[in-house]
Amino acid sequence: MDTQILSTALAAVTAGELVGIPTDTLYGIAADPFNPDALDRIFIAKGRPGIKPLAILVADLEQAQQLVAFGERGLELAEEHWPGALTLVVPKLGSIPDWIGDPDRRTLGLRCPNHPVALEFLRRSGPLAVTSANISGRPAVLTDVEARNLFGDDVAVYLEGEAVGGEASTIIDLTEPSEWVLRDGPIAP
């Protein structure tokens, strides 16, 4: 990845701006999850209601464990399918602000994407709130060019790349006694 673009993108995230990021599923829009104004920018850009929690992307299991308390099954699934197209909904740690994830249930949806650009960026930025690059209710885009055409200057920096999967991740809720598949996707655990 071009180091100048990487530096510009990291500065944008730090400043509370949005960054476009390719993943293994869909092209995404990312923001600092610890900055509520940055999260609001995502909802405004997408025209998405602010009541639907955003997923958090991490570079690895170690980053994830700074945010959530994995149970045995969560660790097993993460070790088996990460990096990959599996989002796990698990209890967040008490130190994580209410506005991140689901404030009522105190949960987070976490995923480690299997895309070299995303992983390199996440290693440097830390965890990011990421959602598909689309206007709410419309199909998601797969490339930085398509995202730029859709969002223009609402996104400060677009990292070059293409989403290779083209399908949203599988989401499994592990907060109940039985696993609950919230969305079917490429991974069937």
Folded structure, characterized:
The model has no long low-confidence stretch (mean pLDDT 95). The termini are far apart. The chain is globular, with a radius of gyration of 15 Å. Strands 7-1-2-6-3-5-4-8-9 form a nine-stranded mixed β-sheet, with helices on both faces. The chain has a single domain, classed as DHBP synthase (Alpha-Beta Complex), CATH 3.90.870.10. 29% of the residues lie in helices and 19% in strands. By secondary structure, it is of the alpha/beta class.
Order of helices and strands: HEEHEHHEEHEHEEE
CATH topology grouping = DHBP synthase
Put simply, the count of helices is 6
The helix fraction, in percent, is 25-40%
